[in-house]
Design a protein that fits this description.
The structure holds two protein chains of two kinds. By secondary structure, chain A is an alpha/beta fold. Chain A is built from 19 helices and 13 strands. The longest helix of chain B is centred in the middle third of the chain and has 11 residues. The chains are: A alpha/beta, B alpha+beta. Chain A: This is Adenylyltransferase and sulfurtransferase MOCS3.
Amino acid sequence: MEANGGDSSEIVRELEALKLRKSEIEHRISTLEAKLQETTAAVEPCDAVSNGYSSPSSPAIEHGLEHGLSPDQIYRYSRQLLLPSFGVEAQSSLLKSSVLVIGAGGLGSPALLYLAACGVGRLGIIDHDVVELNNMHRQIIHTEAFIGHPKVKSAAAACRSVNSTIKIDEHVEALRTSNALEILSQYDIIVDATDNPPSRYMISDCCVLLGKPLVSGAALGMEGQLTVYNHNGGPCYRCLFPTPPPTTACQRCSDSGVLGVVPGVIGCLQALETIKLASMVGEPLSERMLLFDALSARVRVVKIRGRSAQCVVCGDNSSFKKQQFKNFDYEDFTQFPLTAGPLNLLPTESRISSKEFKEILQKKERHVLLDVRPSHHYKIVSLPDSLNIPLANLEARINELTSAVKEKEDGHVNTGSFTNPSLYVVCRRGNDSQIAVQYLRESGFDSAKDIIGGLEAWATDVNPSFPTY
Amino acid sequence: MQLTLEFGGGLELLCESVKIHKVNVDLPDGVDNLNMKHLLSWVRTNLIKERPEMFMKGDTVRPGVLVLVNDCDWELSGQLDTAIEEKDVIVFISTLHGG
C-alpha cells in the first residue's frame, strides 16, 4: 500500500495505452471476420442463394437432405431440431428468414444475440449511436473495448462471434422517413427496439406500408411491454395509440432510469416472438399485450383491440401512402424532438456560467445554492453547501428557501450590511434550473440566477473529476 | 362495490406511488349500474393526488393510456360505457417508449 503517486500514474497510463490497443485489435478482428465472410459468401454463391446463408462446409445436397440443412447446421442447431414442436422444418424456415432489429440498445442487445444464435438467415442491425460506459449495465451485447465505437459495429462483431455462419447487415445510420422504406423492405420481420415515440410511430407506419409484421418491445424503470403489430390482420401501433401522448408522459431511460435486466427480459421475449413468426410456430402475441412488472414479479397478458377500420394508416379508407410517409414529420407529430437542444428560457442577466460560479465560490461571496433535482439524484452527487428542494416541490417548500436566504442575511447583521445574498439555482443539465429561476423571480427572489448547463457543465468546464451520470 | 384498481407504466406516480388499490366504490346518486365513466370520475376525485392532466383529458383517459377491464382492452367492451361489476379488476397503464 506504499505505492506513491508517480507509480500509480504510470500504471494508469500504461493501462490506458493497453486498452486503446486492445480496442484497436478487436476492431481489426471484427473487420477481418466480416471480410472473410464476404469472401466465403462470394466463393459459394449457389449455397448462399439456395437457403439464404453461407456455409463453409459441404453443401446439404451431397447428403440428399431435403430440408437443406448442412451437417454443421444439423449439429449446431440440434437442440432446436430435437424439439417436436419446432423441428427441422421450423429451423429451415428460420434459416431462410431475414430480420431487422432497429436499435442495438437495451432491448436490441439480447434480441440480437438470440436471433444470431438461433440461426436467423440474415440479420440486419440499424443504429446511429456509439457505445457509452453508461450503456454497459443493460446493453449486454457491447464490450468495454467498443466504448466510443458505433453500436452496430460492436453488435455485429458480437453476433458474428456467436454465429459466424449467418449473414449480418450493418446499417450505421439513423432510421429516417427518407431511408426507412428502402431498408425495411429488405427484411421479412421488423423488431422495434428503439426508445422514443417518433421512431415507434414511424416504424409502425412503415411496416403497414410494406406489409411487414412488427415485434415491438418497450421498457422503462421496472416495467416492460411487448406486443406484435400488423400481423395477420391485427392492429398497428396507431390503432392502439391514434393520438401521441403528451411529451411529459414520455420518459427516457437517461432521465428516469432503468434496471438493466428489465429491457433484457423484454428483448429476450422479442427474440422469441420473432423466432415464432419466422418459423411459423406457435401463437404470435398479436391482439394481445404482455405487461411485465419486475418489482412485483408479475407478468400479465391482456387482450387488446383488433385493427381499427378508422385507423388513419391501416384503416379501410386510409390515404396514407409511401409519398405521405416520406413527407411526414414524426418529431412534430409526437412533439418529441430527437435532437433536443438546451432550453433557453431566461435572459442572459439571469444566468451565470459554471466558471463564473467557481469564481463566486473562490471569492467566498455570500450566496445560497439551490439544487432543484429530485432527491434521489441529489443523493448520487451534489455540490457542497447546497440546499436540495426538487422542482416539483419548490412551490410547497418555498419557506425553506426563504429561511436559508434569511440565515445568510443574519450572519452579517453586526456589520450593518443588509444586502441580500445571491441565489443560484443548479440542476443536472440546466433546464429545470431555468424553470425554477423563472418561478423564483416571479415569487420575489429577484436575484435568482441559474447555472448554465447544470452539474454536467460544472464537470466539463470546472471539475473534470466531478461525477456525471 | 369492491374493485381492484391498478396503475402502471408510471401512472402510479400520480397516486402516491401505490400500484394496487383495493377500493370500495359507492354508486353515484341516481345511478343503478356503475360504468367506466363513473369510475374514472371517482378515480380522479379519490385516487389521483397530483397532475390530473397526466391521467385524464376531457372525460376520458389521456392519449397513451390503455384501460383494461378484467385483462381486456376497454375498446372491446364499450370504453366509457363498459359496465363495472363487483370484484372487477381495472388496470390503467401508460404506454412505455424506452428501451
